[in-house]
Amino acid sequence: MTAAIYDVAGPRTRRRITYGTVAGALLLAGIAAVAISRLAANGQLSPELWGVLARKDLQTLLFKGLGATLQVALTSLALSLVGGVLLAVGRLSHRPWVRGAARVWVEVFRGLPLLLLIFFVFLGPSAWGIHVPTFWALVISIAVFNSAVIGEILRSGILSLPKGQAEAGYAIGLTRGAAMRLILIPQGVRVVLPSLIAQIVTLLKETSLGFIIGYEELLRNGRIAVEYLGGKYAIPVYTGIALFYLVTNLILSWTARRIQKGKTNRSITAAAPASSEAAKNEVTVDA
Q1: How far is CA 100 from the centre of its chain?
Q2: Phi, psi angle pair for 59, to nearest 5°
Q3: pTM, to two decimals
Q4: Residue 240's closest CA among 69, 71, 50?
Q5: Position 50 pLDDT exceeds 90
Q6: Which CATH number applies to 53-271?
């Protein structure tokens, strides 16, 4: 049984939604047309400028930056997921000091701007004579920041599950930790998977802040290219960088949706035999 949390739109409301969608699309198309005409008037659409994207040296530089970006993103993601799971479990712990420590971590690092956190991690240890490489400064900052966000996402997913899920685990002899690990966390992840995907995409984009501390990721390499080629090539180069980010995020979202769809199909397939067996038992009992 499903409960509707909103009223189904009637014919008049659907027409209003359609009119609003069409008006918004026309407005965006008009803005895009004006922008393109202005670029053309200033010579920014000439083949000479956009042909720079076909240069091998520029492509090599951008792909190198993309590799550095993905390296930071994957390392940060792994640390963020581990930290997020620990924080979610800590926030749900029965021990007050564990809940308090996890809550302080979440509130502090979720409330700090990521850029400020990057400066703290990169510049702070130098006061004690400790040099932090730009790679690890960026990874630690992004991982700490996103662990707080992912922890709250996972906690909300676990809290959304029926209480009977945990009680069923306790009934078969599982400890609280085992029930959390084997039952609650896997189901909670499935519930909040769309939110996790959105946060992972955000994490990938956050790696662009690495240019502030000199890490040669995609955006910084693009800036280096613009400084070398000249300011007139800025729009083509940054457009190419935007396409890199867009394609990478689309592939990431598509992969996550495929994983989610595969898990859903496996769950339905596993549930079907159980439902059939229950129906047969019910018929036998009635007979």
Answers
A1: 26
A2: -60, -40
A3: 0.77
A4: 50
A5: no
A6: 1.10.3720.10
